[in-house]
Design brief:
- The protein has a 12-stranded antiparallel β-barrel.
- 10% of the residues lie in helices and 39% in strands.
- The chain is elongated.
- With 420 residues, the protein is mainly β.
- Bound molecules: copper (II) ion.
- The site of copper (II) ion has 5 residues, from loops.
Length: 420
């Protein structure tokens, strides 16, 4: 067996590849041994194989996505080679994702055996935060093409479907010196809690010899009881960079993508544990605590104790089902406008994380994750109980104050309601 030491005479690029491969393997093993609660999801249920769909992840989360596409050499050897693209990215505040794609093999530039793409992506609008569409922009630099690339993408959820489109500017691809443009479209169709169908097409606005319309199709799934998602896919592209996914080839490749998110907040900072009852994160909101009725208190578990199963009415889909404790609060404000503010729980995060509302507003959370979450006040003043996939929980806030809340099964999930 040749050892790494013997590779000293190889080209720098090859050495770099081997070093990276070893590091990625080490990281994979480390992450694979982590418990499911240590990592949070990012969802292949929301994007097709070759489009980002404006995905920016969650702030404070590291993402490792492994895309493997296999090429078969044909007659006579039928040699199968695996051409992976690794994505490593960090979710940052302000809906920003910063990271890189590294493809171990690339056909982009003949003199460049592999492909690095460093990128930043920013979500300007999110449907989960009340916008009519998702709007995101990405800018990056591709080392193989030696050019800057950019993309603007639009997305919209309609029932179980999410459709998206993108426009790309690719500078200096394949050493031509020309700026190229590409457009792309695709979507996902959620088949249930764990499954989605996904597909996309992309094309350069003017294709040259050998450049075909790029396409991909996949069966995407969330792996039950874990935060991982998996895509089984076919595509006529090799790498998943903006450059690589904008031009198709003659070969159909089959492969898979596996996503590993790692939540740093779980390991670092004071926010890693739920504050104790009346702890420092609980804001001064004496009015609110006085309003709390005995039945609410009786139902509230101590932080860290699993929530009891709520009555069906508490996790009902419909706002029409009003639970007793909500009744108590809304009666006082029946004369004020019944505003409803929608919020989402997706990819192990409350979205928006901070909601500012007027007193009397009802906040309605919908859980879009395959796993159950809770909306639980840090001071214990309210608790949704487990909200299953597709279910909603509503609460009307009548008193001014700041309400911090978290999720009991995933204590790193935090949100805040500010009632003015
Ligand atoms: Cu949760």
């Amino acid at each position: 067996m040749p050892s790494i030491a013997q590779s000293g005479a190889t080209a720098p690029a090859e050495r770099l590849t081997k070093t990276l491969f070893l590091r990625v393997t080490a990281i994979t093993l480390a992450l694979a041994s982590a418990s499911p609660a240590d990592v949070v999801s990012q969802s292949l249920l929301d994007r097709p194989p070759n489009l980002s769909g404006g995905w920016v992840g969650n702030s404070g989360t590291l993402y490792f996505n492994f895309l493997h596409r296999f090429t078969e050499s044909g007659e006579p050897e039928h040699k199968v080679s695996n051409v992976p693209t690794f994505l490593v990215a960090a979710g940052l505040p302000k809906r920003t994702l910063l990271g890189f794609n590294y493809a171990t093999n690339s056909q982009l530039a003949l003199r460049f055996p592999n492909e690095w793409e460093f990128f930043g992506r920013f979500a300007a609008l999110l449907q989960d935060e009340g916008s009519p569409i998702d709007l995101a922009a990405q800018a990056g630099y591709n080392l193989a093409a030696e050019g800057a690339d950019a993309e603007v993408s639009l997305g919209r959820r309609v029932g179980p479907a999410r459709i998206m489109s993108a426009a790309r500017v690719l500078s200096d691809p394949i050493e031509s010196g020309k700026t190229r443009y590409a457009i792309a479209g695709g979507g996902t169709l959620r088949l249930g809690r764990f499954l989605a169908l996904a597909g996309d097409v992309a094309s350069l606005t003017s294709r040259e010899a050998g450049e075909r319309v790029a396409w991909s199709a996949g069966l995407h799934m969330a792996i039950p009881t874990t935060p991982h998602t998996l895509s089984l896919q076919a595509a006529n592209t090799l790498t998943s960079t903006l450059q690589g996914s904008s031009r198709g080839g003659d070969d159909v490749r089959y492969g898979f993508e596996f996503t590993i998110p790692l939540t740093l907040r779980r390991y670092f900072g004071a926010g890693a544990r739920p504050p104790s009852h009346g702890g420092e994160e609980v804001p001064a909101a004496p009015d609110t605590t006085r309003v709390a009725t005995p039945d609410i208190d009786a139902r509230t578990p101590a932080p860290g104790v699993p929530a009891p199963a709520p009555p069906d009415s508490l996790i009902s889909d419909s706002m029409k089902v009003v639970t007793p404790d909500i009744d108590v609060r809304t009666r006082d404000t029946a004369r004020t406008a019944r505003a409803v503010r929608n919020a989402s729980i997706r990819n192990f995060a409350f979205t928006p994380g901070r909601i500012e509302i007027a007193a009397g507003t009802t906040v309605q959370w919908k859980n879009n994750d395959p796993v159950a979450h809770t909306v639980t006040a840090t001071d214990g003043s309210f608790n949704s109980g487990l909200i299953e996939y597709g279910k909603t929980y509503s609460r009307t806030f009548t008193e001014r104050g700041t309400y911090n809340y978290y999720c009991i099964p995933h204590t790193f999930m935090k949100g805040v309601i500010v009632v003015r």
